[in-house]
């Protein structure tokens, strides 16, 4: 579907994006993550043919350039903030771009906008404008949707609704590229992750692989933690002591359970440990930041 190959972007003499390459397939939900100023919005604008670049971008095998936007007819987008006509109603804003009024009405109802859709957009709250921007991006059943901070200004109910809509569209084959600082929300929808740092893509991975622990650990509490540590040492099973618990390799759990049972020690708590997505991403970016500092 979307193929980005070695794009480079400069603002004057300053390099903003360096050798960025990635692909997005139908139904894939890609999270684009990075610090402020990392280049996320620049990449999104470039995919929409709004920024000069070197390299190549194609959508369904049709090239996208600064002058040729024909391939973007089946791409929806919300970048930075909704671009709407304030003195038109929300309905008329949508009608300007709708190819199917019946489909547009269904989208209005699905987004819960019916009560205010005929009011002028200038009177909308931030959340209402955001919903209208998302509706514009989803209009006409696009094959690819690009969303920059889509949850901005939305309450919890609207956030859950947008999340459901993204899943519904993806199930029908629509691909998404989404940038958001709300990683907890992004984690609930994305199937792949791209992490960008100082204009370079440093991670491009399916979520199933990204969240997989290389050496999964478990936290264990027992009725006699002192005797537990003695038994682990005698059996030469590696562990780390953590307050009133031990951290052990997940692969050793069966062996440990038998050892404890044989010595009449009972398990009070046993659960996997590991970094949250946010902690993992922060650690990756910190490591990269350290590497960049060492280079400079």
Q: How many beta-strand elements? A: 14
Tally of helical segments:
10
End-to-end distance: 38 Å
What is the share of helical residues?
Answer: 25-40%
Identify the CATH homologous superfamily of the largest domain.
P-loop containing nucleotide triphosphate hydrolases
General shape: elongated
Query: Major sheet, described briefly?
Result: 6 strands, mixed
Please give the CATH class of the largest domain.
Answer: Alpha Beta
The name of the CATH architecture of the largest domain is 3-Layer(aba) Sandwich
Instruction: Give the strand order, joined by hyphens, for the main sheet.
Output: 6-7-8-3-9-10
Q: Under CATH, the topology of the largest domain is which?
A: Rossmann fold
Pfam family, one: ABC_tran
GO molecular function, one term: ATP binding
Keywords: ATP-binding, Nucleotide-binding, Transport
Family: Belongs to the ABC transporter superfamily.
Structure description:
This is ABC transporter. Keywords: ATP-binding, Nucleotide-binding, Transport. One of its GO terms (molecular function) is ATP hydrolysis activity. There is one protein chain. This protein is α/β, with parallel strands linked by helices. It has two domains: 209 residues, Rossmann fold (3-Layer(aba) Sandwich); 57 residues, Alpha-Beta Plaits (2-Layer Sandwich), CATH 3.30.70. It is built from ten helices and 14 strands. The strands form three sheets. Strands 6-7-8-3-9-10 form a six-stranded mixed sheet, with helices on both faces. It has a four-stranded antiparallel sheet with strand order 2-1-4-5, with helices on one face. A hairpin with a 2-residue loop joins β9 and β10. It is elongated, with a radius of gyration of 25 Å. The protein starts with a strand and ends with a helix. The mean pLDDT is 90.
